[in-house]
Amino acid sequence: MKRCAWPGEDKLMIEYHDKEWGVPIHDDDKLFEFMVLDTFQAGLSWKTILHKRENFRKAFAGFNAKKIAAFDEAKITSLMHDEGIIRNNLKIRATIANAKAFLKIRKDYGSFDKYIWQFTGGKTKTNRWKTIKQIPPSSKESDAMSKDLKKHGFGFAGTTICYAFMQAAGMVNDHTTDCFRYKQV
Questions:
Q1: Alpha-carbon span 61 to 75, nearest angstrom
Q2: 174 near 3, Cβ under 8 Å?
Q3: Which CA distances in Å does 135 have to 6, 15, 54, 126, 138?
Q4: What is the model's pTM?
Q5: Domain 26-173 architecture
Q6: Spatial distance between the Cα atoms of 125 and 166, rounded to a whole number of angstroms
Q7: What's the pLDDT at 37?
Q8: Which of 61, 137, 165, 167 is least buried, going by the fewest C-beta atoms within 10 A?
Q9: SS3 88
Q10: Could you give the CA distance from residue 170 to residue 4 in angstroms, rounded to a whole number?
Q11: What's the angle, vertex CA 92, arms to CA 12 and CA 98, rounded to 5?
Q12: Alpha helix locations (H) across 42-152?
């Protein structure tokens, strides 16, 4: 079975590629989970984040935005001592700010899903990359998303992070054309 090259031989990466990556997500809670994980991915590999995903889930209240928005200094200190996650003060604080911004967007737009999918016109943009080297780090859509998320108070929401989010959430199909998942998603 032919798949994209990026998962390599790592079993967790293969499972993620085969079952999650690129599948369109319209559930607000799941979208927020990917926002949190992509915040922490900034400057790191997805493999590092994926292998700590369950630790992040535990540390960040099951990715519950309301609970995260209420994190205080004591909780931040606790997170900075949690060896199971990426202990980056700026990313932790950005995640709390992002939770607050996420809740405000959800209130203002009716759902985060409705808001975030506007950047691809409400549907998956299917690309036709033959190799992973052709996949860009950003797009005009991720540029627009980044700019607007920042306007709404999001941190660690650069265009590259937004593009990675779009790939994960199925807003773009960046499976290579020879990958078995390309036509499935």
A1: 11
A2: no
A3: 11, 21, 28, 12, 9
A4: 0.96
A5: Orthogonal Bundle (1.10)
A6: 10
A7: 98
A8: 137
A9: coil
A10: 15
A11: 95
A12: 46-51, 53-59, 65-69, 73-80, 89-109, 112-116, 140-151
Give the DSSP per-residue string, 122-176: TSPEEP--SSGGGS-S--HHHHHHHHHHHHTT-SS--HHHHHHHHHHTTSEE-S-
Structure tokens at 183: 């036509």
66: buried, middle or exposed (CB in 10 Å: 19+, 13-18, 0-12)?
exposed
Q: How far apart are CA 182 and CA 108, in angstroms?
A: 34
Of residues 128, 135, 175, 131, the one with CA closest to residue 17: 175
Instruction: Name the token pair of 174.
Output: 């960046």
CA pair distance 161, 99, nearest whole angstrom: 16
The letter for the amino acid at 113 is D
Please state, in angstroms and rounded to a whole number, the distance separating the CA atoms of residues 146 and 159. Answer: 5
Residue given tokens 């950003």 in the structure block: 138
- pLDDT per residue as tens digits for the range 39-77: 999 999 999 999 999 999 999 999 999 999 999 999 999
Query: Rounded CA gap, 60 and 101, in Å?
Result: 16
Q: How far apart are the first and last CA of the chain?
A: 16
Length of the chain: 185
Rg, the chain, Cα only: 16
User: At CA 183, angle to CA 46 and CA 176, rounded to 5?
Assistant: 45
Strand 172-173 to strand 125-126: parallel, antiparallel, or no bridges (unpaired)?
A: parallel
